[in-house]
Amino acid sequence: MSADGTKPPVVYVVDDDDAMRDSLVFLLEPLGLAVEAFASAAAFLAGYDPDRVACLVADVRMPGMSGLELHEELLRRGAVMPVVIITGHGDVPMAVRAMRTGALDFIEKPLNNQVLIERIHQALRLAETKLQAAREVGAIRARLDKLTAREREVADLVAAGKQNKAIAHALGISLKTVEIHRHNAMEKMAATTGADLARMMTLAAGTG
Which of 20-29, 66-75, 91-100 has the lowest mean pLDDT? Predict the structure, then answer.
């Protein structure tokens, strides 16, 4: 754990083949990577940390939930973890399905270790970026929740580029009241300009 209390990035390995799990751990740990291995998708889902910078290396064919189904389940849960799919029985439909759902790569066994290591480093960099973005959106939405209904109305119009006089007319309130609500909304949102507020509102809406 780092000085600020955060856990280091981790590579999650999910494969029902004991030998493959062990070989991946032995490959990655000497590179200074934290690795946690699971024998099934269910075990992984019960044990992973969604708030940690991480990537997932998952086998396609496993008893119960497959690697592709695991990836799709993570997407349903809103996870931002990049996924690398590995398989000893790859085919074109599987690869297409994996890439369409956003898998970072689809690698066939026997694995090219250098390619896998490069993909994992790429995935961890992407994971950090995605997790930081998700945390920013979460913080913005938490601040939005603190706005009163009227402050939110004013904030929406400020974000749309409306001037105070136009906002007062649109909402049927005085210019002074708009100024008060605008000041309160900007302060609660920690926004310095209308453009800054517009960026936050776009991110919170999931359209940025």
Answer: 91-100
Query: Tokens standing for 118?
Result: 């490069």
How many helices (H) and strands (E) the chain has is answered by 9, 5
CATH number (domain holding residue 197): 1.10.10.10
Q: What residues make up the domain containing 164?
A: 146-205
Q: Which helix (H) or strand (E) holds 14?
A: strand 10-14
pLDDT, position 56: 97
**What Cα–Cα distance (Å) separates residue 54 from each residue in 45, 60, 121?**
13, 19, 10
Angle at 135 between CA 131 and CA 136, to 5 degrees: 120
- CB contact at 8 A, 28 and 56: no
For every residue of 27-92, DSSP letters joined together read: HHGGGT-EEEEESSHHHHHHH--TTS-EEEEEES--SSS-HHHHHHHHHHTT----EEEEESS--H
Q: What is the pTM of this model?
A: 0.77
CB atoms within 10 A of CB 158: 25
